[in-house]
Design goal:
about 280 residues; mainly alpha; MetI-like fold; two-stranded antiparallel sheet; 11 helices
Length: about 280
């Protein structure tokens, strides 16, 4: 009995150490960015246009461009990803073709974002002649997030007990009625989890937008989805590596705004998920 207690404490200690190894570096980075970037935050920094080759002014176009990319890419990827997951989970037979598709989806989730950027450049910018634009960048980012959305949605659907399906079918409902009214509502929190993960990845990616949408210096707001746009990840990369003489607080302030924007979007989606789960 004493040995079991000792093993349990040792196991908890190892798990706590592993947690600290992950959490402490992340918190240290956040604290460093907060301390060095807080001084740059002001309404002028957030709501004005850049000037003097981005050495002065604010980052408002980059904030607007990032918001455009996030919402358009999620609006494209979420419905397609959910429908694909519903088909694979509820309709497709378990055969070699389905297993191959599932394996391909898992592998696509690990493909480098640079590859997706080159794919978007070839398909949307050149072949479909969308040009370097918000729509080309958003579609590229949407395709990049599809594997994550499909995987999380599929797991959420599989987590719904089969009793819901059996009861619905036994009452005379069709398979689609069962999926729509009995399965999807109970899988919605898991689906929103996939959307939250996708928002974080879309907002922070640099390589795909480098080829498809990002502008180096654009002191105006986009007026349509066919326009180029500035974006916070690329803006941060440019002011850090390409423009000498930028104050350090300006760089860390931009990074802090990017983290804050992703955090606000994730919190909003998390609140919606929690409210829906409580309602159900």
């Amino acid at each position: 009995m004493r040995n079991e207690s000792l093993k349990q404490r040792l196991g908890f200690g190892v798990l706590l150490l592993a947690t600290l190894i992950v959490v402490v570096p992340v918190l240290s980075i956040l604290v460093l960015i907060l301390l060095k970037g807080w001084g740059a935050l002001s309404w002028k920094f957030l709501l004005t246009m850049p000037r003097d080759g981005m050495r002065a002014g604010g980052i408002f176009p980059a904030i607007v461009g990032t918001t455009y990319l996030v919402f358009v890419s999620i609006a494209f990827a979420l419905p397609i990803g959910v429908m694909a997951a519903v088909y694979l989970s509820e309709y497709a037979r378990d055969n070699w073709l389905t297993r191959t598709i599932n394996l391909a989806i898992i592998n696509l989730a690990g493909v480098s974002s640079v590859v997706y950027g080159l794919f978007g450049l070839s398909l949307f910018v050149i072949f479909l002649n969308f040009g370097v634009s918000i729509i080309a960048g958003a579609l590229t980012l949407g395709i990049m997030t599809l594997p994550v959305i499909i995987t999380t949605t599929r797991e959420a659907l599989r987590a719904v007990p089969h009793a819901y399906r059996e009861v619905s079918l036994s009452l005379g409902a069709s398979r689609w009625q069962t999926v729509r009214h009995a399965v999807l509502p109970r899988a919605l929190p898991g689906i929103l989890t996939g959307a939250i993960l996708s928002i974080g990845r879309v907002a922070g990616e640099t390589a795909p937008i480098l080829f498809t949408v990002a502008a180096f210096y654009l002191p105006k707001l986009p007026t349509s989805l066919s326009d180029q746009a500035m974006a916070l990840p690329y803006h941060l990369y440019v002011i850090t590596t390409q423009i000498p003489g930028i104050p350090e607080s300006y760089r860390y302030g931009t990074a802090l705004v990017l983290i804050g924007l992703v955090l606000v979007m994730n919190i909003t989606a998390g609140v919606l998920r929690a409210r829906y789960r409580k309602k159900r």
